[in-house]
Amino acid sequence: MEWPFNGRKIVLRFNTELQPIEDGVGLLSGVLGTLGADYNKFSICEKNWKKVTGEDIVYNDCIKEMFHFDEDRGGRIKKIILQSFGSTPSQPFRLSSQPAVDGAQTKEAQRMLVELQAEVTAEKLKRNAVEDEKAAEKLKRKAVENEIAVEKIKRQAIESVMSYLIQR
Question: Where are the coiled-coil regions (predicted)?
Answer without folding.
Answer: 113-156
